[in-house]
Every structure is written in C-alpha cells, then in structure tokens.
Amino acid sequence: MAHYPTRLKTRQIYSWVGRPLLDRKLHCQTYKEMSVKKEGCSTEIHIQVGQFVLIEGDDDENPYVAKLLELFEDDSATYSKKRARVQWFMRFCEVPVNKQNLLGRKPAAQEIFWYDYPACNSNINAETIIGHVQVVALAPGEVIPMDLKNEKTFFVKLSWNEKKFEPLSPELIAQLDKLQEGSPRCQKPLEAKTKSTESPSWTTEHAVKRIESRHSTSKSRQTPSHPVTPKARKRLELSSFPRTPNTRISQQISRASLDSPGRTKRKVAFSEITSPSKRSQPDGAQTSSPALQAPEKTGEIQHSCAKDDKKASPDCHMVLRTRVPALKTTEISEERTLTPTRGGRKSSVVPLVVLKPENIRKRETKEPEFRDEATSTPHRIRRKSSLLTLNRIRQQLRFLGNSKSDEEGEEFLPAAEISDSGSEEDEASTHPLPRRTHSSVSRNLRSSMKSSLQTPSKTPKKTPEPRTPRHATPRIRSRNLAAQEPTNTLEEARLRLHVSAVPQSLPCREQEFQDIYNFVESKLLDHTGGCMYISGVPGTGKTATVHEVIRCLQQAAQANDVPHFQYIEVNGMKLTEPHQVYVQILQKLTGQRATANHAAELLAKRFRTRGSSQDTTVLLVDELDLLWTQKQDVMYNLFDWPTYKEARLVVLTIANTMDLPERIMMNRVSSRLGLTRMSFQPYTHSQLQQILVSRLKHLKAFEDDAIQLVARKVAALSGDARRCLDICRRATEICEFSHQKPGSPGLVTTAHLLEAVDEMFSSSYITAIKNSSVLEQSFLRAILAEFRRSGLEEATFQQVYSQHVALCRMEGLPYPTMSEAMAVCSHLGSCRLLLVEPSRNDLLLRVRLNISQDDVLYALKEE
Amino acid sequence: MSGRKSKSNSLIQAEYLSQVQRILRERFCHQSPHGNLFGVQVQYKHLIELLKRTAIHGESNSVLIIGPRGSGKTMLINHALKELMEVEEVNENVLQVHLNGLLQINDKTALKEITRQLNLENVVGDKVFGSFAENLSFLLEALKKGDRTSSCPVIFILDEFDLFAHHKNQTLLYNLFDISQSAQTPVAVIGLTCRLDILELLEKRVKSRFSHRQIHLMNSFGFPQYLKIFKEQLSLPAVFPDKIFAEKWNENVQSLSEDRSVREILQKHFNVSKNLRSLHMLLMLALNRITPSYPFVTAAHLMEANQLCSMDSKANIVHGLSVLEICLIIAMKHLNDIYEEEPFNFQMVYNEFQKFVQRKAHSVYNFEKPVVMKAFEHLQQLELIRPMERTSVNAQREYQLMKLLLDNTQIMNALQKYPNCPTDVRQWATSSLSWL
C-alpha cells in the first residue's frame, strides 16, 4: 500500500500527550497518546495507542481504517516527525475488483477486513490521522448487525491476505476485544475501581459514540444465542418518548412479574417486551453521566438516562429493558446488584461509592406492593450506602423533572424502603420458616429469604464456559409425563421420609453446625486457611451438616456479612483413583482439564502464589480415607496447601473413623491436619424421634408410639438416620397394602413398623434352611453330626458324605449318590449357608457352616 | 393300539409331537415372562409397587432380590418389568439398564455399559470415550442433572449383585445408592443375588445408603404345589392347533400326576431339589424320549429321566476304565485303608499292584512299568486321582504324592456293575488281606 500524503483542509494541530517513553533500541521517543486540535475550534480529539483510527486516504468518503499500534517521533524522517505504526484494515471497496468475488457473498455495509499482508508499509505519518472509530471483531458464527445507523462502527469478521478471505483466529478476536476494552475511551465498566472516578473529556458527539461502542463491545463478548437481540444484556432507560402504550405495558408486566417468586420468570417477562432495536432513538440527545456507571462485573448493566427536550407529554416513563441471552448470567448479575461484593470490596461496612440507580429504580417498582408490609417491619440499622443511594435517587428524579406520574410514587417513599434491604425484610417477615439463629437477626432474615428464592448449591461466581464438545453436559432425557404428586397422606409422608428430601433444617445437630460454621466463618473473616476433620459413623448427618453450613455461609456472603468464597466439593468414593482428586478440584476451581500430575502442579502453583484479591476457597473432601495412597501424597498436599498464607484454603474433611489420622496417616500428614476435629455421635433414640417428628410436621400419618418404637429400635442397632427413615417408609407401604380400601389408609401403627423392622433386620438364614429341600436339610444334619464326631468346626466333603450315607442307612432312607450330594453342597455353598472351598477339590473340599450350629439345629427341628 | 395305526396317522402324530416338543422345550429352556408365577405373589406385589412408584412418582428406591439359584429371581423381575411397561404412562418414561456381574467384571466396563444403555454416548459426539475417571464424572454429572419430577427414571438391574460388591472400593454401588438417596435423577437399583450374606459384603457407607429392602424368594412351596407346577409345565396351551390332540395330551398329563409311580419319582426329585430348573431338566429328558408311535409321556419315561438325573458321574467314568486301571484304583484303595488316607505315589501303587499280580493273578497280565505309568496318568487326566502339589517339571513323576478322589463305596458300587470284571480282581477288591 502506498504512502498517504496529507491533504489538510482545515489546519489541524497535532501534539503529543503524556510523557515520552524513550525507546533505546530505535533511538526514538514513543508516546501513548496524541491530541488533535482543529484550528478555530475548541474540540480536541485524543487518540491513543491501541485504538482504531481513520486515516486520510485518496477517497474522502471512505478514509482508511487502521489500528494504532505505536506513536513515535522520528527525527530522521524528513517529511513529518510525528510518525505512527498501524495495522491496516481493508474496506471491501479497497479489495482489488477481480478478487472481490472471492468473498462469495455480499459484504455488509460496515464490514471491513483485517489486512494480513506483512509486505504492506505500516509506518505512516501521524498527522494523517483523522479521528478514531469503532471496530468490532466478530466470531465466525456471529451475524453482522444490520440495523446500525452509526457509521462510525465497523465490523471485522474476516481477514484478507491478498489471496483469500479467512475467518479471524480466536486469538485475534480476543486481542481486538481486549484492546477495545482496555482503552479508556471505551470505558468498559469493569471491576476496575478507578474507572468511574476518571473524568474523560469528550463532546456530546463522542458520548454517543461511546455508548455505541459500549454496546458493541458488550455484544461482541456475548455468545450469540439470540440473533435479534445480541446487545446489551440489561438496559435501563429513562426515556420520555411518546411510545406510551409499549412502555406502559412493559411497566405493568414488570410489576406483575416482580411479584412472582422466581427471578428468572421476571427476566423472561422483560426480555419479551424489549424491542429489538438497540438504540431507541436515532439522534436523541443522550446524556450519560459518568456517575451512573456501575462497576458491574458479569452483566454490565447499560443504562442511560435520556431526556428529550422536545417532549410533548409530561409523562416520564421508566422502561426496564432486559435483553437476556443467557438467563443465568443475568440472574447472577442481579444477585450481584443486590449484594455488591465484587472486586476488592469485601466487607459490608464499606458503603457503595458508585451507586446503581437502575437497581434502586427497580426496587421502586417493587415498592408499591410491599409498602404496607414494609412499614410494619422493624427498622434495622440503616447503612450509609442506603442513605447515599437515596440521595442519588432524589437527585436523579429532580434531574428528570418532577413530572413523574403519581402511580409510580417514588418520591413519597420512606427512606427505609428504598434502602437495599427493605424489600428483603418484607419478604422475610412473611416467611414462616423458623431459622436457626447464628450471628445476627438481619442475616438470619436475609438468609431465610434467599433460601426460598434460589438454590445455593453452587457459587454463582463461575463464569460460563464456552460450550465445546469436551464440556458437553450430558443429562438423562426428561420424562414426557410429569411425575405424579402424592395424593394421600401416606404418600406425602413417604415423600417427606425419603432420605433425599432435603429438610428445612437439621434438627439435633445444632452444636455441630455451630462449631463448623464458626470455624469456617472465622477463617473467612481472617482470610486464612485451615483444616478440619469430621468423623462419625454413616448416617449421622456429617455431609448434610456441612452442606447446611455452606448454604448458610453462601447466603451470608450474598448478604455481605462474610467475604465471598468459592466452594468445592469432592468425594473420595466418586473418584476412580486418589490422584484424580486434583483433576476434579482444578476443574471445579477453574474449569481447566488436565492430567492428574499436571493438575497437582497447577494447583500447587495456584495455592502458593496467588494474588491477594482472590477469594477464599472452601474445599469439602468427603470419604477422606479413600484418598489414602502408599506415599500419602494426596492427603499431604490437601493438608499442606492451607498452611500457605496466599492459599486461603479451608479444607473440611469427612470420614467414618474417629482415629483415622492416627491410624493411617503418617506423622507429617496428621500434623498438618491439625487438631480441629469433630466427631458426630450416632443419633440417640430421642434425636431420631425428633428427626422423624420434624419431617412429619403437620402430617398425621404415624402413631406416636410407632415413631418412638422405630427410633428406639434404630438407636439400639446403629443410630443411622437413613435406616430410620427407610424403615418408616417401608412401614407406610405395609400400611397401605394392609388397608385394602384405597383412599382411606389409616395411621401407621406399631404392628406395621414391627413388620418393616423384621423384614429389614431379621436374618434370612433360618427361613432359608426351613425352605430348603429334604436332601439339603439332611446334608446339614450330616455336617452337624460330623462336627460333633470330630469336635472340629470343619470337615471335608468326603467325611460329611460318609456321615450322610451312614445317617440315611440308619433311618432306612435311600442315600444320595456322590454327584447329588455334591450338587447339594455347592448349592448350599452358593447361598452361603456353608462356606466351601472351590469345587475342584472335589472330595477333599473343606466345608464349614456359615451360621452357628444352634441356629441350624433350631431351623431343622421345627418341622 | 399302536400296531393298528395307519401310516398317515403316525405321520400326523409325528408332526404333532414335534410341535409339542418345540413348545415345551421353549417353555423349559427360556425363562419367558409369560409363564405363571408360583408362590411369589407377595414378593411380586412388593416389587411391582416399588417399580411403579419409581416410574410414576419419581421416588428413588433400592432393593435386593435374594434367593437360591433357580428360585425365580430373574423371572420375577422380568415379569414385573413387563407389567410395568404395559402401563401406558410408564412406557415412554422409563429407562432400563441391565448389568450382569459376570459380564461387567469391573466398574470401568460397567460404566461404559451404563452409558451405552442410556444412549449417552452420542452426547459425547465424535469424542472417543475417555478414561475411566472421565467416564465416571461424566455419568455422575449426567445423573446429577436430573431431579425428581422432570427427569426420566432409570431402573438399574444388577444381576449377580454380589460380584459387583467385589469391585474396587465398591465405587459403582456407592454411587448408585448415593443417587438413590439424594435428590437427583430418580433411580431404582435392583440387585439380584443368591447370597444370603450379601449385606455383609457391602462396605459400611455403601450399606448405610442401601435402603435395606430385601425380597426373599425361598421356593417355599410344598409337594402338592410342586405337583401342580409339574402339571402346568407339561400341559399344552389352548392355542395348540389340534384341539383333540391337545386334549388327549393334557388328559395324559392329568393321569400321570395321579399315577403312584410318577408321584414317587417326583417326590424323590422334590426331595433332592426344590429348584424348578431341575424339574425342567427332568421333564426335558422325559420329553426327548417320546417316540411318534406313542406320542405321550409315560411313567417309564420319567423314570428313565430321573435315573439320568441322579446318576453318579464318577461311577460312570469308572465303568469305562480298563482292567489295569481298575486294578490300580483297587491298589490305591488298599493303600488308603492301610495308611489311613495318607497320600501315595506311583511307586507305592505299582508295588501294591505287583504284589497282587505276582501272588495270585491269573487273569491279569503283568504289564511293564511304563504301561502301568501310562494307565496311572490316564487316571490323573480323568481327575480320579489328584496330585497334592502342583506338578513341577523336574520332579520325578513316580514319586509325586497323589490322592484318590473316589470313595470306598463308590469303588465297590462301580465294581458291582463293572462288565466282565475278573473274579480275582473283585475278590482282591473286597479284601487285600486274603492274598497274604
């Protein structure tokens, strides 16, 4: 490409901005920024390295497009001392005509091509730069938006190397995107704390452009799940255009949907009512105040408060616009806005520096419904942030004019209600569930509210991964017909008694819960790490208690009472091999996949040297004893990582045996595990009874005596809560069977429960012997006789057979042949009534009884 | 009666007979779920209710069906599944996974089989199915995704359940039971096993997750019911093409069941084994003996079949031995008597045999030592004698210690029936001392 001569129409003054950086190798000074000032005009354009610029060319209509790579002063150049290095982009019209057909389609209006031709001269005169422009890189699958009116945005999708068009490589796209985001002009409202305080200077015209750019960048980062609305995920606009019907409807819908318990539903409602056009008005004077920019991380909530000067109607409508390509992400983003603990802000006492009016305004729409209840709720300590928020809202409203319709009524709201916890309190007060009390009332209320709204199973932190075949999430196909709901009391009881039914609270484990909660909470607050070992026989609620703790902590974290943390769970039984634990942890932590060895290295690196801004990780290792290896390196690492200060790792381990650390661990491992131990005792009968009663609350399906009976039975046997529930479940079935009339099944009585207990616990050996054939029984008799004769508990088959023959002769019965006797012997052996050697030993195989001789005698006697 | 039959008549009879044999053989050999259930109605009801709750209500369950071999465990579950699949609302909504402990010998193959049967492998697309660890997490993830109300219930049927308990760490069982006890995809885990001590095989945490439901099948019927089963198994169905023949056949079966000798045979068979499979065996053998000339089962057929069933296999082998080999066995018997079951070697047997031949034998030729050795090795191949230790290459075979795998009574019985046994050999067998 040729050198472009400068053709100045109006004189422009180019000057460097910022201190020069001396490039020692090239003996020139490089700059980061350049300002262009038109003579006789006060506007000033700042151009920075990394931005996309327009460069004067032969065609005034279509100036060249390029990306600025470098600005430097070259003293050796004769023509101009201000030089720039650029990466060129080609317009379609610049492609040679005979090669234009290689594209194979009609180019989009604003489409340009990455010019991948190393021979091209990229060193230009800096004074040929006209201004900056917006270029958006699109992945191969994305569609170039056609409805854009702004000519200052270009889209790059393919690269052109003078031979053929090729799709952009993902690295390139990422690079382009990154550059865009990185440049301060584009003002990505990312987590950078300083961004919003920065006050860049631009003209109104640039402001429009900037909004535009933000839209386009946000779009380019999304997955193109919705081709029509791939734009900003959520946009809140205060506009006053005469689009009354539409907006009114939208408002109503939004109101209505706000009442619905599921947040996702509300999103759907919003997304349905949004219009596909990105910019609602072509050239309305949009003003965007920097203060409104919220430091959002996940879904950058775009909002702009626009005000039309020429507005005809006095009504100022609020339009809540949400475009939701992925419901989940927006949901997360909304959660975030309620409990804004992103970035470096860890503790709840830090007030919001930058407010999120969209958030507050949304709440305003919520308020009318809640107002009555809210006034009755006790006032909690109002936070600074809420006051600040309130002031901001007032300012905002004043700014918008006093013409709000009264039905909105925001101005008249009491302050407490606008505070960001007002509505939560409302919901909490109506929430009937009694929650356990741990630290403060406010957290309690909040947590109970949250639990009703969301599933806390995983931390909402994880960024959605791209869907590649490797990450394919399999699932069992769903059923065509919905599962039936229980129809009578017994079925309802059975549902509640199933072990999988998650109880609202765990009775009888309050002390353990408190201990674990305090442990983890203290570690979270101190930003340190630690280990805890939890032991107890199966079915004593170890895992359930830890899950409960994590759930409460996650709610607390959302409520900003404890720092945020990442929760990972691994189970030794769900691993094929101890070293796989690294793979699982790494995958859950970062989404990466690696081999076991590599994963171990990566994790070690991560936990030893990581930035201070990282959240604490809480790792639950279930069934710890299965991670035992010869060298115990897995256990060692698990307990070693928390000792690093940077790791901020809290490891909770669960196993069955109390003395596991002493028994199987080396000293260096058990030493790192520390002495924070907890032992879950088997449930006593009163505790089991309490568990059953709490599950069967308000449901009269069992007699009181029956519950007590089963609790005592199980407590005497094992104290396993699962057993207790299973027995009760079985008893309901027996009860249902025994009552032949459908519809009116009675209560489960002690008789039913006893039957269930018998079924589950009675030994089947005796019935098996009673039901065995005559020959089998006489063979057992012969064994007993042989044992008595020899005084040993073991005999060879030959001995038993001869004894058998002798017995038969004595009683005058026909005696069996050897083959028959052998068949009987192996049959009894396969049932494990007898313990026999492999039958290749034939006559010499040794036979033992698997049950006591008394039992056999007892079973044989009762004929 | 048969003599007067015309040729065409006998042809038709043969045609019928082959049809009868086909129908009955199919009944005896295949465990078709069409047959009736005998004496397991209570267990059946328990199982079918359980399966229905899983299929319709999405309730996870686990159950073990325990019973000795041939007690109808597989038949029971097949019956239940067949009935379950006939329910319209269940038909489309249930996935079945059949595993067998003899085929899926470790968790790795079991996981692959589960994935295949759940049709999840196409989710992975072109990806070659990964390592064991990947498969496990893949499957667990898949099952974890579901919930009670919306996911399709999966019924896992684990045949030879006890063998799964021997897998490393019992990973598969733990995970299956864990799913059945947590709010994931609804599953019903049904294990079939013949071991009564199955619960002791499970590790404590696996055991805790198992719901402890056990369905016992014990063959708890008596002889009258056995007789009824016999009749039912032998009767021809109503759909048989020739009504008259079928009627005659069924009448014959009825009269058989009232026959005293037949009852005796059946009682004897019943005493040995209550197993329905052994009854099938007996009937099959009897069925094969029917000839077209008289195409009905007779008591004699059953008698012969019973004899075949209760035959001593080793005595049969002894019948086929040569006189030299019989002599060696007798020599071993004497050695056993003298040394009280102590093991012997070839040299001892040979010496004993030499003593017999030198002293009194007129009918037995004095074979060379290598010939006797050959006979001895033949006995070893027939597993009538067994070396005490493993045969090593450089050990001298003459001095390897052996044990006889025949009982004295067996030897004597076999000699009684041995065709053309020389008298002096028989006398030698009864007493070793008579030659002194």
TrEMBL record, chain A:
Molecular functions per Gene Ontology:
ATP binding; ATP hydrolysis activity; chromatin binding; DNA replication origin binding; metal ion binding
Q: What Pfam families is this protein classified in? A: AAA (PF00004), AAA_lid_10 (PF17872), BAH (PF01426), WHD_Cdc6 (PF09079)
Q: Where is this region: Disordered?
A: 183-313, 360-387, 401-487
Provide the BAH domain boundaries: 45-171
- UniProt subcellular location: Nucleus
| Sorted UniProt keywords | ATP-binding, DNA replication, DNA-binding, Magnesium, Metal-binding, Nucleotide-binding, Nucleus, Phosphoprotein
One Gene Ontology cellular component: nuclear origin of replication recognition complex
- Composition bias (Basic and acidic residues) maps to 206-215, 297-313, 360-374
Positions the record marks as coiled coil are: none
Compositional bias annotation for Polar residues: 241-257, 272-291, 439-449
Residue stretches of biased makeup (Basic residues): 469-478
Q: Which Gene3D superfamilies has this protein been placed in?
A: 2.30.30.490, P-loop containing nucleotide triphosphate hydrolases
PROSITE patterns, from UniProt?
BAH
One GO BP? mitotic DNA replication checkpoint signaling
For the keyword Repeat, the answer is: no
Write out the similarity annotation. Belongs to the ORC1 family.
- Quaternary context: Component of ORC, a complex composed of at least 6 subunits: ORC1, ORC2, ORC3, ORC4, ORC5 and ORC6. ORC is regulated in a cell-cycle dependent manner. It is sequentially assembled at the exit from anaphase of mitosis and disassembled as cells enter S phase. Interacts with CDC6 and KAT7/HBO1. Interacts with LRWD1 predominantly during the G1 phase and with less affinity during mitosis, when phosphorylated.
Query: What exactly does this protein do?
Result: Component of the origin recognition complex (ORC) that binds origins of replication. DNA-binding is ATP-dependent, however specific DNA sequences that define origins of replication have not been identified so far. ORC is required to assemble the pre-replication complex necessary to initiate DNA replication.
From the Swiss-Prot or TrEMBL record, give the protein name: Origin recognition complex subunit 1
List the source organism. Answer: Vicugna pacos
UniProtKB/TrEMBL annotation, chain B:
Per its UniProt record, what Pfam families does this chain match?
AAA_16, ORC4_C
Q: Which Gene3D superfamilies match?
A: P-loop containing nucleotide triphosphate hydrolases
Q: Taking every annotated instance into account, which residue ranges of this chain make up the domain AAA+ ATPase?
A: 59-202
Tell me where the signal peptide lies. Answer: none
InterPro entries according to UniProt: AAA+_ATPase, AAA_16, ORC4, ORC4_C, P-loop_NTPase
Per UniProt, the keywords (alphabetical) are: DNA replication, DNA-binding, Nucleus
Q: Does the keyword DNA-binding apply?
A: yes
SUPFAM superfamilies noted in UniProt: P-loop containing nucleoside triphosphate hydrolases
Keyword Transcription regulation (UniProt): no
Q: Where in the cell is it found?
A: Nucleus
Could you tell me which PANTHER family the record lists for this protein? ORIGIN RECOGNITION COMPLEX SUBUNIT 4
Binding partners and assembly: Component of ORC, a complex composed of at least 6 subunits: ORC1, ORC2, ORC3, ORC4, ORC5 and ORC6. ORC is regulated in a cell-cycle dependent manner. It is sequentially assembled at the exit from anaphase of mitosis and disassembled as cells enter S phase. Interacts with DBF4. Interacts with POLQ.
Q: According to its UniProt entry, what is the function of this protein? A: Component of the origin recognition complex (ORC) that binds origins of replication.
Of which family is this protein a member? Belongs to the ORC4 family.
| Name of this chain's protein | Origin recognition complex subunit 4
Organism ancestry: Eukaryota, Metazoa, Chordata, Craniata, Vertebrata
